[in-house]
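re: that chain from earlier
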Amino acid sequence: METPAHSAAPRDPEQTRGSIRRFIVDAEALPSPKGAALRLIDLARDPNASIDETVRVIQTDPALTGFVVRAANAARFGGIERTLDLKRAVVRVGMQMVRAHALALSMIREHRQTRCKRFDYNRFWTESLYTAVLMDELAVRYREFRPGEAFVLGLLASIGRLAFATAAPDEYAQVLERAAEGRVPLQLLEQQAFGFDHHELSSVLLADWGVPTELAEVVYWQHDPEGGGFEPESRPYRLAGILQLAGGIAADSLAPAAEQGGSGIVYLRAALLELDDDDIAELTREGLKELREWLSMIGLPPLPTKAH
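^ sequence. v structure.
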């Protein structure tokens, strides 16, 4: 049977990862951690590293310090006394989330512009932060998640888009131009152009940066949780579904008015997660309020006043 034009033919994940590895090796430039983020990744690989060493690294970066303290006082820790003590904040948040914050801040600073003419840098990071905030909100509802885990996934789950724009700016500009026409989904156009999509590229990059394999696997299958071979109602399956929902809401909410409301997957995934319209409306409203505060702290452009 011939594969429909808008459907991806089945692919072997190991072959796909091999293609991604070759792409990474051949790339002249890729998003990569710098400064405090790089030192924190190195510390994570040292079994003898102490929390005091971690705190000293964080203290070299005022923005990262603010990120960690704010995260430690976020809603998911609502039953715990607020703190300004950095060491206590690091313990509360966990090293996985600290490294994720450092990675994001590092790449926001280092990649203020790309050569990819169709890639909207500010919208990319705004959408990534919004996805992270929504994941954080959802983690309160689905309490099987460890603190910080959901935020990490949302923040870095689409880093492959930035990697494409950085490593292959001209080719990716053509992909984005075709995607803007709306006839073929972005991930299928990426697969046609590169042999893999940004979800799959994100997964490999995160694994290289020390994100646990289980979470990297969730990122790999975020566009198709049912296709990942996860056990029904397992943590990875639930995480992949929630990541798909949060990413869909963020993309739809931040899209130009003419493009909003077109993601049917949001409604389908919400139904599977037993969330009704009121739940989604509240999630969106609270998420946007939190997002505005994050954007102000990081120095990204504020949301338009009519963003919903």
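DSSP finds 16 helices and no strands in the chain.
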